[in-house]
Every structure is written in structure tokens, then in C-alpha cells.
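Researcher: We're teaching a course module on how sequence relates to structure. For the next exercise, students receive a sequence and then see the predicted structure as C-alpha cells, so they can try to spot secondary structure elements on their own. Here is the exercise chain.
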Amino acid sequence: MARWCILKMAHIVLTSGLGNQYAGGQTELEIEAVDVRRLVAALEEQFPGIGPEIQREMAVAIDGQIYQDPYLERISPDSEVYFLARIGGG
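Model: And here is the predicted structure for the students to work with:
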């Protein structure tokens, strides 16, 4: 008997600037990663140059919660992850 396993991956949304500059216009992707650090590494592997840009310029929202320093934050297979421009302030 064959068993099928459907692997669910996190839904990733890039700003149009990131998508246009690094991902050939793609702004929505499905990627498997357990935390933001591994997600950024997977994006960098697929779209060279995007990793440093994310580290310099982006905040990350995971399931509606915004993180300014998100690299150890966990990502579930059913998470929605948005990369957003950081908001400066003083």
C-alpha cells in the first residue's frame, strides 16, 4: 500500500522590492524552514544576494507578530512569514 505524505511549508511573502530585485518578481513562496535563520539561508541559496539585504533592511512578521531581530524565532509549517521594511526611530 502506498502512503502519501503531503509536506506543508510556511507561506513566505516578500515585499515587491525584494521580489523584483532578487526573486524574479516572485513575492509569494512556499519554503520549509524551522526558524528565520534557516529561512534566510534557504532564500539566499535560491536567490543570491537576498540574505544580506534581509539582514540589513527587513523586519519579519511571523503569524502577525513583528520581530526586529528575528533570527532564532521558530516557524511552523503552517506559518505566514512576511518580510517588511524596518521602521526607523529614535
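Model: If you want an answer key for the exercise: The first strand starts at residue 10 and ends at 13. The first helix runs from residue 16 to 22.
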